[in-house]
Design goal:
507 residues, Beta-Lactamase, 5-stranded antiparallel β-sheet, 14 strands, diguanylate cyclase activity
């Protein structure tokens, strides 16, 4: 039996030592590797010292090797507590604090033959050293189990906070630690008369096997497991949790920054009511679940979502408020919307937008306010393209659009109707005043030359003016302006004509 136990202790110690070395090599990959290697190194020293006790030729050497078990025990406690604090998302204990127990334990066991506070009595037995424990030993046991228990609570708490896919990291660590813990409890409190038998280091074989399997299967391949709190803290969205009375229960860093901007007085918001921080005008938003967009005083735009938390019994214990800054998104959306309404070459509004504006202006003109349009066609544009090239033709269109856009009121609109044709919408202006403006634009255009590789080019245009009639509409208005334009072109171009009065029905 002793030889068999020597083999078991030695095997357990060597396996634990191998695992400690392999784990230590991964210390740069994960902060959990170093404390885990300490646990296994302590278990290796524990088991090998037990094997030495069984083969020691003298009582003194056997007792000395028995005392040598406890530095390994101390390493197991330190490594376990270190591992649990780091995996729970906390900072590891300071090294000087972690060394207090091992140093005291070594000092007490080294001097125990003089004071007998650790072992009251120790005798060589069939399976090791049979001892009667003293107060220092029980203080060590109490401290060890207190630290192990506190570490276990940290692990279980962290496991509950972790994202679902990483809870198994904690679960398998606890499974691996369970076997030697049970073995130690049995050895200390039940098999006290088993002539020195120590199950704990043997059962570290189970720990090594479980932790080795988890490494090989990728369960422990993560760095430090991710918690839901870390996920929420990493979000750029402001996340706030309120109780049923609208008091802040928790906020993530993004929410804290947002609330600090809204509530410059500062201080913690936890425990305060929503209305005290964000103002009473947001009370309705929080009271009703849903989504809305709000605009800040400085022009910022926020997407505001309110989600009610539902309990199993159907009650609502609180509310989650998520606020996202969409200022840049809204700016880009407005820019894209504006681009969709513009002609790609000239920057003037396109025909689709012209149709929509004319329909809206026609409805608004029912109160008696006049609405006129000017349809413009660049003279001899085909000749310009043929002689100077399409690049110069494009340059001419851009210049005409620029001149028109720079000469109209803010409420007017310049649109490219198609090809070399433009339409200017003039709300609140009758046909006569519109014709006078169009003629001024015509003279301004003719007076400006366009530089080309073949020399300067003077550009003129013809225009037709029409006013919305009582029985007309946008289509009829465009038709009248088009008829007037073609009369101007047939009359010799470079002139402005107004549409003749007509009562024709629009299409």
């Amino acid at each position: 039996m002793p030889l068999a136990m020597v083999a078991v202790y030695t095997g357990a110690g060597l396996i634990a030592l191998l695992y400690a070395v392999l784990t230590y090599r991964r210390r740069s990959e994960t902060p959990l590797a170093l404390p885990l290697s300490l646990v296994m190194a302590g278990a290796a020293e524990w088991a090998l010292a037990n094997a030495g006790v069984l083969v020691a030729p003298t009582r003194g050497l056997a007792l000395g090797l028995n005392y040598a078990i406890f530095p390994g025990v101390a390493l197991v406690i330190v490594g376990f507590f270190w591992h649990t604090t780091v995996s729970a998302g906390r900072r590891p204990p300071r090294i000087p604090l972690m060394l207090i127990h091992p140093v005291l334990l070594v000092a007490v066991t080294a001097t125990d033959p003089w004071h007998h506070l650790f072992y009251r009595q120790a005798e060589v037995a069939a399976l090791g050293i049979a001892v009667q424990h003293g107060p220092a030993y029980w203080a060590h046991v109490l401290y060890g189990y207190a630290m192990m228990g506190f570490g276990t609570v940290l692990v279980i708490s962290a496991m509950r906070r972790a994202v679902r896919g990483q809870r198994r990291v904690y679960r398998w660590f606890l499974v691996g630690a369970l076997a030697p813990t049970v073995g130690n409890l049995v050895t200390v409190f039940i098999f006290v008369d088993m002539q020195g038998l120590d199950l704990t280091p043997v059962l570290f074989l189970v720990s090594g096997a479980v932790w080795w399997w988890t490494d090989r299967s990728g369960v422990n391949s993560e760095q430090v497991p991710v918690t839901y709190a870390q996920v929420i803290a990493a979000l750029s969205d402001a996340v706030m949790v309120l109780d049923s009375n609208g008091r802040f229960l928790d906020v993530n860093p993004a929410a804290a920054r947002l609330l600090a901007a809204v509530h410059p007085a500062g201080g913690t918001v936890i425990g305060k009511r929503w209305q005290e921080i964000a103002g009473p005008h947001f009370t309705t938003m929080v009271a009703d679940a849903g989504q809305t967009t709000i605009h800040g005083a400085s022009g910022d735009v926020y997407d505001f979502r309110v989600v009610k938390i539902e309990s199993a019994d159907g009650s609502c214990p609180g509310t989650v408020v998520v606020v996202r800054d969409i200022t840049e998104l809204e700016r880009l959306r407005a820019e894209l919307t504006e681009q969709a309404m513009r002609d790609g070459l000239t920057g003037a509004y396109n025909r689709r937008h012209l149709t929509a504006v004319l329909e809206a202006q026609a409805r608004a003109a029912t109160d008696g306010q006049p609405l006129s349009i000017v349809m413009i066609d660049v003279d001899h544009f085909k000749t310009i393209n043929d002689r100077y090239g399409h690049a110069v033709g494009d340059q001419v269109l851009v210049e005409v659009a620029r001149q028109l856009t720079g000469s109209v009121r803010e409420c007017d609109m310049v649109a490219r109707y198609g090809g070399e044709e433009f339409v200017v919408v003039l709300p609140g202006i009758g046909a006569q005043a519109a014709a006078e403006r169009a003629d001024w634009w015509r003279r301004q255009c003719a007076a400006r030359a366009v530089d080309t590789p073949l020399g300067t080019l003077n550009v003129t245009f013809s225009a037709g003016v029409a006013e919305l009639t009582a029985t007309g509409g946008p289509g009829h208005l465009l038709s009248l302006a088009d008829e007037a334009l073609y009369r101007a072109k047939r009359a010799g171009r470079n002139q402005v004509l107004a549409a003749e009065p007509t009562l024709s029905i629009i299409g």
